[in-house]
Every structure is written in structure tokens, then in C-alpha cells.
Amino acid sequence: MIHSLFLVNPSGDIFLEKHWKSVVSRSVCDYFLEAREKALDPEDVPPVISTPHHYLISIYRDKLFFLSVIQTEVPPLFVIEFLHRVAEMIQDYFGECSETVIKDNVVMVYELLEEMLDNGFPLATESNVLKEMIRPPTILRSVVNTLTGSSNVGDKLPTGQLSTIPWRRAGVKYTNNEAYFDVVEEIDAILDRTGTTVFAEIQGVVEACVKLSGMPDLTLSFMNPRLLDDVSFHPCVRYKRWESERVLSFIPPDGNFTLMTYHVNAQNLVAIPVYVKHSINFFESGSGGRLDLTVGPKQTMGKTVEGVLVTVHMPKTVLSVSLNATQGSYTYDNATKVLVWDIGKLNPQKLPNLRGSLSLQTGAPKPEENPSLNIDLKIQQLAISGLKVNRLDMFGEKYKPFKGVKYITKAGKFQVRM
Amino acid sequence: MLSMSTNNSSYNDQGGADSAVEIGQETTPTSNSGAGFGLFSTDFKKNDDLKEMLENNKESLKLEAMKRIVGLIAKGKNASELFPAVVKNVASKNIELKKLVYVYLVRYAEEQQDLALLSISTFQRALKDPNQLIRASALRVLSSIRVPIIIPIMMLAIKEAASDMSPYVRKTSAHAIQKLYSLDPDQKEHLIEVIEKLLKDKSTLVAGSVVMAFEEVCPERIDLIHKNYRKLCNLLVDVEEWGQVVIISMLTRYARTQFTSPWREDGVFDENSERAFYESDEEKTRDDTEIKPYTMDPDHRLLLRNTKPLLQSRNTAVVMSVAQLYWHLAPRNEVSIVTKSLVRLLRSHREVQYIVLQNIATMSIQRKGMFEPYMKSFYVRSTDATHIKSLKLEILTNLANEANISTILREFQTYVKSQDKQFAAGTIQAIGRCATNISEVTDTCLNGLVLLLSNRDETVVAESVVVIKKLLQAQPSQHSDIIKHMAKLLDNITVSMARASILWLIGEYCERVPKIAPDVLRKMAKSFTSEEDIVKLQTVNLAAKLYLTNSKQTKLLTQYILNLGKYDQNYDIRDRTRFIRQLIVPNEKSGALSKYARRILLAPKPAPVLESAYKDRDRYQLGTLSHTINTKASGYLELSDWPAVAPDQSVRNVEVIEPVKEWAPSLGKTGKSKPAKSSDDKFYSDSGEEEEDEKGSGTSSSNDGSSSSSAGLSLCLCVPPPGPVCVSGPAFVPEKSHNLLHRMTGKGLAAQYQFTRQPCLYQPNMVSVQISLTNTSDHRLEQIHIGERSPAGLKIHCFNTIGESHCFSTLDDTKEDQFSVSIQPAVGDLFLAVTMTEQDFRKEQGKLQGMNECSATITVTAENTSSQPLNRRVAAMANVGVVPSGQDNVHRFAGKTACSGAVLLVTVELRESSAAVITINTEKSVMGSMLLRDLKKSLAQA
Q1: pTM surpassing 0.90?
Q2: Chain B residues with CB inside 8 Å of A188's CB?
Q3: Do A70 and B625 touch (CB under 8 A)?
Q4: A185-206 pLDDT, tens per residue?
Q5: Contact A107 B71 (CB under 8 A)
């Protein structure tokens, strides 16, 4: 299936290669690099490229290209999903997924890749299993290893690999048993220039951090599960229970994982937490224009809106901006033509405003169209859909765990057309 | 060289990590093309240095060297010359070193075949290792070494591993099959045998890998699947995600060959009736079954039912493969259940979106109804990548109908203004398609497009012209105004394609704009020489057409243009000019053809059909690479058409082994660790009904109750020595039962055990264990029995197979599970109580002095000082009988070990101030001290 993997940095250098079958020359990447040259933005590189003898499937993530070489028919999503798992695994092991980190830990990354695929077919992709085979680096362990010459490689077959619950390690022990759940909701919305909602929906995810000893069997129930329209689960969740009782019943993996993602029923109206008053004008004569932006809270359920960040993709002809922000600070990147206004906390009494003039390339015609705004925001202690966790019960173990639930609302792809 | 070796000597235990980083940095910035001689020589030196490290005796140095070598491999550098030095370490004891050597071997064995052979014997040895991980990794490496000479060895190893006890090793052997096949396709027949065997495997771990091997080696041997079809369907939810994808796609192909079409006979898809259908999904299903004589094969239904939960998978590839399965296999009215899940995937990564949108584009052409309610999810954001934008546009166009067109057009208006001009142009094409497809909006669209003609951006204008041309061609009668408007634009538009389109349009409809057309020709004659080729060709066309319709005004102009064309640099234009001249200007040589000039040039032309690029994409199975690239990828397996008549259904029947009904408590011999087997069911499907069904009891005997950890106890049989003792009934039977198998681990089967302290029925020297099995799942559990495997030195009298463990549901299922469990008896349960007189007691005690005696002084709690509670405590702890005692403060108890009959004597002597001395005399001193420890604990607590 997956023949080889190449990691390519933004400047087009291949800094790691791994082959699971016979070796494929790295010259095959030239086809990809050519496509990369052609695309204006790395995001625009087509994920699937076909070359005379191979097919190249790539993902772009954390400023790196993960490029896999395929020789025969395979579902492209299979490869794409796997490549993302590789990136997540690196992130999980080393805290970040970047060229430097991979180069520093090249042997361990290589060993991990070796374990993840056999003959191009995924063998172990569960992080709990991998971590038993190759232990993640910690400062303490690297010191111990240097002194004793022991290694990070486990010598036993991970128990998870053989059991029916491969995501969980056996023999987990904690002194403090705790289970935390974060309900994170993101509002995806498109507002048109008058402020009318063109499209809005809520996507949610329940992230869990479970540190419980033994084999706990958890049941998580919601006050209002009817809100949930479409769900996807971590493999640990028993689908039948969900179908019949609308509760999440599962034996959790150890550590951090995504328990479920959901989509909130489309019938429910989505509360839009902020509004934007905007005006942007370009003078008929060319040469300049004015921008005036105000952001204010709308339906926030009495909570404070934090971390507000407005991003404007300016027309290509805008040379520079000279603006004045009543709150926060702004930056304008002339290369990418992106204006970023970092507002921070929204104060309903004193609405933040950004206004000033734009200067255009001399001689360039007045831009035809207005840019669009992207908004980032965060509301703590609130799930905007109103979803509430009812209770968490544990079976199968005797101790009393510490339980906690946190709600956060964020802006997802929140766009305002100007 | 010298400096390197001094460096080397400083590499003792500490320096490893640092230097690796240094060297890593040293080599990273070099690009291979720019590697000059200097770089080459340093590489060379470094390798020498590595060689030395590998030949060193210190393991840490070797490891360090291997790490650096693997670093080189990862960077794509050549390290093949180190092969001899590396291969020596293949038998290393250090696991990490060994693994790194494996990595190296797999990479270079193909290049250094002779040397690679040196390592083979190591792997052959490792294939017999008791550790399954080592067996598996040996097979992995052995099969990855692409050396043809060892093919027979590989074949043998694969065959052996396919019947290994460990499912993990069997999984590895399934992978090895594919490797061997790619190395030597001649082995196919033998490999198919192994595949056939592995397909029967009931482990979820193996299923995905073996189906993968099947797909690669012998996808045409569909007959191998029949017997395993139901099993695969049932196992599916529990297989790991990657295996699910492969199995689902294989089953899709299988189902297409084995079942008849669930689609309605009329076959052709009727858009209108279909749409009505979605609004009342449920009712329709009922109607359907009434109208149609078609009944779905239960196996077909089984597949659809068992794949449905996987739509909720977090793995996008799994969701997509279920979606394609429904698309290709489900009745028309059921396909739409996949919509929601597909739309959910659009939240995922960019690359995932790309693939999913492509598939939705193909689906939405045939089935608008499926995605129409989710139309807004396909709205374009300015931050989307270009290829995502155009796919969304494609889908929106496919979804457009009379009802939603106004919404869509409003949305399109926004897109037309986008800064991304390529996208804006795409939007204009999309508007054109909407206009042709939906006649109600043709005029609106046309007007909108005409407005765009005054746009400042050239690409937008050009695209509009092209699209307007296509639209006008469909209905030219009413639109002479637009043609006039476009004629005016000709002065300003510079994009050649647009100019050519306008010229063609005027030529085609010159009779509708009789005044303007000659004027346009005049202008074009003036600029002819500076035009692009495509414009020149159209100018010649225009001239010819005008010459035929209005020769009075244009004769001279036409001749002028034809003359210019005659001497053009481009031979196409010269050719065309010559042809046109012969065609339209009659002369003696031109012959018959010129009579037909009018009919040739001014023939009514059919309007171009604006259709989706995804129109016929569904000839490829959805979700495949071939579908994405729209050409047949190598190794693509065609999806066959439904057979007209279903092949024999009975081929999928599997002989059901009649379970033996056995309700009597079953029997035990020397019982101990028991791998219980149960046929039970998916992890996903347990629900909490509890029902106690069946009890089995086994007995176990032990000689020296030291419970060895994982294997439980080691037990053996001894002949009971004769003695003045006779076995009595237990003074006390503890109620407490212990968990043997948790219901979670046992997938619904729970087992508890308890020691009955009854003499064993089967052999006097065994210990009875009562095991209670509880079925907490909602499925039938069958054939629960103790597996054959028992640790050495242990005898188990197994109970017979327990027929069925009933519950209310009757889902049939054929999965087999095996659980390893172990019974850990308290030492006290391994005795049998005996009665004896005080006198005998003293006599026995006299024989068991010295090392056979152990004693301890403890403080007993107040209530334990009287004889009753004390007796109870001791009896609870160990199965011993009370020996009548002459002294109030001395309590005596006696027992014997069940297996060897060794006498055990316990004396508890109470002293003043609640102190007590416990003395235990037995020749089994280990058991004695263990019992002493337990008693101390028991008596000291309240």
C-alpha cells in the first residue's frame, strides 16, 4: 500500500525518507516539487499527483509536507488519514511537529515509522501501543539511558496489541485518579455584509484526559443529548449503547484522547456571539482608502468574550495601512497582505475600534471587491449550543476518581464578508 | 582521520547523545547534489569511525554507531559499505541494537545479498523463540529481506507462522505473504493455501491483514470468501480501523458478484420521483417492499447492517469506505444515510476535504436529493484552497434546482467578486451551467453575465463572454441586443479567447445584426496582423460567413482578409484561408463543393452541453485512487455488474457445530489456570442484562501452595502418606468469591471462583474450585470450555463444554474468544481439615520440629481471645479442623495438604495481655510460613 514516505520542508528539501518496500529513488519527489512550485500557496498543492510509475499522495501540516509514494490502487483517504496519524504521533511524542524536532529525534522517528507500518500496511497506530514499544523521551529517561546504557525500546509485545481493547494499556496505576472532559464547541459561520447569517453551525468535540488505574468502565451522559445530530466516536465508545440510551459508555484509553466529535442539530438557531460594524472604502482616484472596524458582543449568554482576533485579507494592491486601534494592537504583513488585529477581551462598555487609512499602489486601479474578515474568539465556561454533561459514572474499579468538566466555545471558520 | 579516532576514544558511556547531535547537524545542511569531493571524503572517514565503533566490545558504543547509521539512512545517505560490520551484530542481546540492525538489514539486504545470507540463521532461530514479539519481528525482517535465494525459507516460515499460537505472529505472516508474492509471483499457489487457512482465522487482529493479502495476491479467488463472509461481517466492528477499510472494500466487490440488484428494475434513475422519496423515507421503504417482488438476501442485509455503525468512526477512510459501500450496494432509498457522515468529514483536514468533495461531486450528479439539505455546507470561504473552492462550486452547481437556484445565484454573486480570479472565472462557468440546466433562470443569468462584461478584470470578462456565447447558442433568437453589446466590447477586450468568441458569435448570427457585422469585420481587417492566431481564424470565419450572406458590403473586405491570411506565418491560418477561398469564391477549379458552401458554413450547430467534469466518474468505484485521478490506477479492481440471477446462496453456509447441552455442574480434575473460551460477541454490543446461568466446578490440587505469579500455581500429585489422620468436613466455608474474569475483559462473560473446601470427587488429592459463569452480554455464549493449554506440572480436570449460556437475544455469531485467567488460591484453601486427638497432635508435632516449625508472637484483639471467635477466624483462614484441647489458653488445629497429604498443625497459645503465640508445624515449610503470615494478619485485626 504505502511504499515510501518523504518529509519535505517548505524550501523543498527532503530531510527524511523511509521505505517500507523496495527503495524508491527520491527523484520521484521532483514531480511533487514541480507542482509545489506551480502552486501559489502550499495549501494549493493537489493532494494526489499521478506520475508515470507512481502516485504521490501528500499532506501539508505544520509547515511540512508528508509525501507518500503509492504504486497501486489504494483508497486515497486511507493514506491521507495515516499521514495525519504520523504527524499526530510526532506531535504526541515530542510536543511539536517540526523539522528541527524530527531531525533531533531522527532515530526514534525512524523506529516509530518502522513500527507503524509493515509492508505498507498499518500495524500499530494507537499511541498507547506505540508508547509501550518505544517509550517517549523524557529528560529523566534520557539521563538514565546515558548512564545505564538502557534504551527506549520496550521488549515485550504491548498488551493492547492483543486484547480487544487495543487502545488501553494494561496495568495502569495512578495515585491520583482523575478524569477530565473538555467540551469544546466551534461556531462555523458566514455573515454577509449586512450582518445577516448566511450559514452557521456548531461543531463540538469532547476531549478527554483520563488518568485512572486499572480497567475503569465509564459512562458519560448528557442532560440534552437530543441536541446532537451527527456524532463520531473514538473506537472505545460502544455504539449500541449510544443508539439505544444516548449515553457514552466506554473503557477509556490512558491519557489524552478525543472521545467524540459532534454536530449540533441544524434546526437550532446558532447564537452568534459577536457582531462587526465595518466599512471599507477605496477612493475613486486610486491611491488610498479608509477602513473602520468595530467589534461588539451580541449573544454571549452573559459571559465575557476573550481572545478576539480579527484577520483581514486585504486586496493585493494595498501597500500599507495606517490605523489607530482603541484596544489591542494590529500588524500588517505586506508580503501576504494580511492585517491582524489582536483585540483580546471584549468590553461591552467600551467597544474596540480600528480605523485609519489605507494606501494603495500608485497607478493600481481601485480594488473591485472588498476583503472578508475572519474572527477568532473564545468564551470560557460556555458551550454555545447549551449542551451539558449530566454525570460520569465509573464501574469496574473501586476507587473514587476525581471528575471534572470544562466548557469552551471558540470561533471555528467564522467569516464576515465586507 | 586522526582527529576522528581521538574523538572516538572519548566516547565513553557519557558522551553519546551529544556527539550524535553534533554529527547530525554537521550533515544536515549539505544537499546531495552539491556534495563535492571534500564532503565525500569526510563521509568516508566517518564511516571508518563507525566501523570501529561497531567492532568495539562495548554495547553502548555499538548502539551509538547504529543510531548514527540509521540517521544516515533516514537522510537518504548511502551506508551500504558498513554492511559487514553491521550484520555481525544481528544476534545481539540488546533489543534496541537488534532492532536497529534489522532496520539496516531490510534497507540494504537487496544490494548485498551474499552477506545478508549470514544473518538468516539468526532469524530462523528467532522464529522458534518463546516470545511472540521476537518470533513476529524475526518473520517481519526475514520476509522483508528481498533476497531470492531464501524464498523457500520464507515460504516455510510463513507456513509455520500461519499456525502460530499468537494472533500477532499470524498477522505478521499475513503481511509476509504479500512480501513474498511481490518477490516471487510463482509462489502464488502455495501462498493461496496459506491465505485460505488464515481467512478462517477468527482473530480480529488477523482479519484485516489477511484480507489485504487476499486482495493483493488472489483477488479473483472470490470463492475463498464464501465460507468466511458471515464471519467477516460479524467481526467487522472489532477489527482495527485500517483492516476495516480493506475488508469493506473487498466485501463491496464480493457483494456485487453474489447478490442481485436491490435497485429498482427500471434501473434508470428518475430524479423527480426520487426526490419525493426522500421526504418520506420511511413510508417509501414500506411501499417499496410491497410493490417489488425483490427480497434482499439476508447476507446482503447483514453486510449493510453491520457496516452502518462504522459511519460513526473517527477514521475518515472508514467512513468513506462505508459510504461507497452503501452507494454501490444499498437500495436507492437507503443510500442517503451516509450523507450526514460525509458532510461531517468536510470539517476535517484539507486533504480529506478534497477527496470527500470529489466523491460528493460524483454522487450529487446522480442524487441531488442526498445533499440538497446540506447545501450550505458547500458554501465557499475565502480561506479555502483553490482546488477545494472549485470542487464546492461544482457541487453547488450540481445541487441547483428551481427551488434553490435563487439562493445559489446570490451566493455566486459573492464569489464572482472574489480576489481569486481563477475561482471567479470558475463561478462564471458555474452560472452558465445553472442557466442551461434550469430554464427559468436563463435570462436572469444571462443578464447577470452581461453586467459582468463591464467588469474591470479581464479574466472575468473573458470568461463571461465565453459562457454567454455558449448560452446564446442555445437560444439565439431573443438576444440580438446582447450580441450588439458584445460587438461593442470588442474594442476593449484583449483576451484572445473572448475576442474569438465574440467574432464567432457575430458570424454565426450575422443575419440578426446585419448592420454591425460588416463594421466589426472592417475593424478586424485593420487589426488582423496583430491578432492572436485563434482570433485570426475566427476573423476568417466571420469574413466567409458574411461573404455568403452579405457579399455586397463585404466582398472586398473578405478578399483583403483572405489575402492577409494567405501570407500568415502560421500554417493553420494559411491552410484555412486557402480552404475558405476555394469554398466561397466560385471559380472553375472549385467544382461542386462551393455549391454547398452555405450549407457547410452556416449549418445549424447544436448548442454545447455544459456538463460536469464528474459526470461519468462513477464508472470507478467511489473512494478509490482511480476515482480521484479519473484514470485506471494500476491494480484497480473493477466492480462487476450485479448478476442477473444470484449465485447459490448456500455456499456461505457454515456448518454449525451443535453445542453440547450440559447443565450439570461440570467436572474438575486438577484445576488451575483456565483459558476459557467463549463464542461471544462484539465489544460494541454488550448491554447490561445480568443472568446467572451456569456453574461449573473444577478441582485443583497442589503440593506446595506457593502461587507462582502468571501461571497460577504449580501443582503436582503425590501419594498421600499414611497417618493417624482422617479427613473431616470443613469447619467453615468462606463465602467470599474472587473475580476470575471481569465482564469487560471477557466481553460479557464474567467468571467468579470460590473454594468450596469440599473433598474433590475425582481424586482425593485435588482441591475443588467452584466457578460461576455469568453472561452479562445480550448474546448467546456457546461452548464455554477450558482450553487445552495448561502449565507444566499442573493437572486440570476440565469441565465439559457448557452448551449455551442463554440470554434473550438470539443474534448468531461465530466469534471465538480465548481468555487467559488464573486462579490464585489463598494458601489456606489448599488444605483439607482433619480430625485427630490431642495426643496424636502432640506426636505429630514432635516429628515436625526444627526447620519444620515456624512461630510468631502477635497481639490479638480482645474479641479474638475467647475460643469461639478465634476458632472461626482460623477456620476462615485455612481449611483446618479443631483438635480438642486440654488447656483453655491453647487452641490446636490440624489439616493436611490436599495434594500430598502432608500434615499441618497449628497451635495458638494465648498469653496474658492479649499476646498470642502462633506455631505452625508442617514439612511444607513454604506453605507453613505463608499460612502463618495470613493468620497473623487475620487474628490481629478486629
Answers
A1: no
A2: 347
A3: yes
A4: 999 888 888 888 888 888 899 9
A5: yes
